[in-house]
Amino acid sequence: MNIIDELSWRGLINQQSDEEGLRNLIDEKDISLYCGMDPTGDSMHIGHLLPFMTLERFARAGHHPYVVIGGATGSIGDPSGKKAERPMQTMDQVNHNVEALSNQVNNIFSDFTMVNNYDWTEPIGILDFLRDYGKLFNVNTMLNKEIISSRLEVGISFTEFTYQILQSLDFLTLYRKHDVQLQVGGGDQWGNLTAGLDLIHKAEGQDAKVYALTIPLLLKADGTKFGKTAGGAVWLDPEKTSPYEFYQFWFNQDDKDVVNLLKKFTFLSKEEIDELAESIKTAPEKRLAQKTLAQEVTKFVHGEEALKTAEKITDVLFSGEIQALTTEEVAEAFHGVPSEEIAADPINLVDLLIAANVDKSKRQAREDIQNGAIRINGEKLTDTTLEIDPKESFDGKYIVIRRGKKKYFLAKIK
């Protein structure tokens, strides 16, 4: 299957500059292609995954992906999709983010070549920039690009206005130095991508074989944007979103969305995905499609060991056997649940529930205990006079409290 056909089947193509031309080029040879990412933060989130997993699909088909980390473009800010100017980052913050993102990309995508556009942008003087590149951009054309026109009513600075030129320069530089012929980006980047094509054709001639391809914005079946949770973005950094939380995010996807997500976020074949789609109809209670999705994406991003830990935590929480977890696994499993710090001294069970903010009053705490609603580290306790020694569980660092069937709290020992 031609890689373009595969991308089309997976629903990963939004716009193409020249489908026939790109197909013919791919049939002729292995190509070099790239996707850019500005260092607006120190971690990618799952919204970044689709463009880069698309590059990975090209890599597995024998092509050569480049990732441009925007040390230059990230220092001025991308106007795309924003109603106001981005806050300007310090160069120290930009450089910190560049390093963090580069390490993250290299850890997940081993076959990508990483480059930083600061390396070729910084040496360009202002007069050279205006003479060699600014002269090739028509302001009327730039104003008509959606990324610019959408900002004209509220205003846009000259700094963000020039972003389009800098990103176009990336494509021209990669084309000249590395024979990169395709840029991949999100749907909101179409104006920037086509500006890059225009610059190459003006600078190198209309015969230059260069192409642009965008990936659609991913929406859930109900029309809402995919990738956000009540707690915010789902990060690829395990310190921001633990592998267990990451696994659970994918496992909890709706039946209506899971097949679409399997196509886009896994490398499973059409036959394998068709089988999982059938399982939703015949045995939806098993959630086999969701489990496979969670396994595949977690393993790809975090590795086999992190997946095993996430599955172990999932099984333990389902069974209630909290003591089977290690101290490190407790920290991962209950990252983000309500937590309070308590002293390391032995404490009465009723007082523990108050200190951990499980109950608001001693009367309510006693009722919960006597009704069998309280479990400490997985064990049901019904004696209101019991004393709990924090030093006896999880290396003296945590006490896991469960009220009812699903409500967890974490007491962190000072």
UniProtKB/TrEMBL annotation:
Subcellular locations according to the entry: Cytoplasm
GO cellular component, one term: cytosol
Reactions the enzyme catalyzes: tRNA(Tyr) + L-tyrosine + ATP = L-tyrosyl-tRNA(Tyr) + AMP + diphosphate + H(+)
Pfam families reported in the protein's UniProt record: SYY_C-terminal, tRNA-synt_1b
Motif ('KMSKS' region): 225-229
GO biological process, one term: tyrosyl-tRNA aminoacylation
Classification via InterPro entries: aa-tRNA-synth_I_CS, aa-tRNA-synth_Ic, Rossmann-like_a/b/a_fold, S4_RNA-bd, S4_RNA-bd_sf, SYY-like_C, Tyr-tRNA-ligase, Tyr-tRNA-ligase_bac-type
Cited function: Catalyzes the attachment of tyrosine to tRNA(Tyr) in a two-step reaction: tyrosine is first activated by ATP to form Tyr-AMP and then transferred to the acceptor end of tRNA(Tyr).
PANTHER family listed in its UniProt record: TYROSINE--TRNA LIGASE, MITOCHONDRIAL (PTHR11766:SF0), TYROSYL-TRNA SYNTHETASE (PTHR11766)
Matches recorded under NCBIfam families: tyrS
Subunit record text: Homodimer.
Entry similarity comment: Belongs to the class-I aminoacyl-tRNA synthetase family. TyrS type 1 subfamily.
Name this protein carries in UniProt: Tyrosine--tRNA ligase
Lineage: Bacteria, Bacillati, Bacillota, Bacilli, Lactobacillales
